[in-house]
Amino acid sequence: MSIEDNKAVYRHYVKVLAHPERLDEVIAQDFVAHDLPPHFPKGIEGIRTYRRAVMGGFPDQTSEILDLVAEDDKVCARLVLRGTHSGEFNGMKPSGKTIAVEVYEIARIANGKVAERWCLLDRAALMQQLG
């Protein structure tokens, strides 16, 4: 696949993240997430479980790609996640607060799907915004 093809896969992946039931469209079955907590399932079920938790806490969550760079089979992105904390998240009761958090991600694309990812989310900024 070309670099532009890989970027297109990544853009589609970002859109589908809001719909955990559709992750099979963009995530490889042998997917590896280097950033998920150890208690999450491995593979695609881990990312599906995580995304359900995020969407449960922030049902209106959106992701905006600010920067997108690719080389070979890797795509690097800087995104901003926005949403309203209107559901329980990580044991925290809904606060009604709106958040905006930057995320930095590297995704390895294989056979038209995200096969591996490394993700850094500014958790301190998230917690500060939630109070």
List keywords for this structure.
single chain, 131 residues, alpha+beta, Nuclear Transport Factor 2, Chain: A, five-stranded mixed beta sheet, 3 helices, globular
Please provide a brief summary of the model:
With 131 residues, the chain is of the alpha+beta class. Helices cover 28% and strands 38% of the residues.
Description:
A 5-stranded mixed β-sheet has the order 1-5-4-3-2. The chain is globular. The protein has a single domain, classed as Nuclear Transport Factor 2, Chain: A. It has 3 helices and 5 strands. By secondary structure, it is of the alpha+beta class. About 30% of the residues lie in helices and about 40% in strands.
Written as H for each helix and E for each strand, in order along the chain, the element string is HEHEEEEH
The span between the termini is 44 Å
Could you tell me the number of beta strands? Answer: 5
CATH class: Alpha Beta
Identify low-pLDDT runs: none
Report the CATH architecture: Roll
Number of helices: 3
Number of domains: 1
CATH topology: Nuclear Transport Factor 2, Chain: A
Taken as a percent bin, the fraction of beta residues is 35-45%
Q: What's the overall average pLDDT, rounded?
A: 95
What gross morphology would you assign? globular
- Radius of gyration based on Cα positions: 14 Å
**Strand order across the largest sheet:** 1-5-4-3-2
Helix content: 25-40%
What does the largest sheet look like? 5 strands, mixed
**Which secondary-structure class do the elements indicate?**
alpha+beta
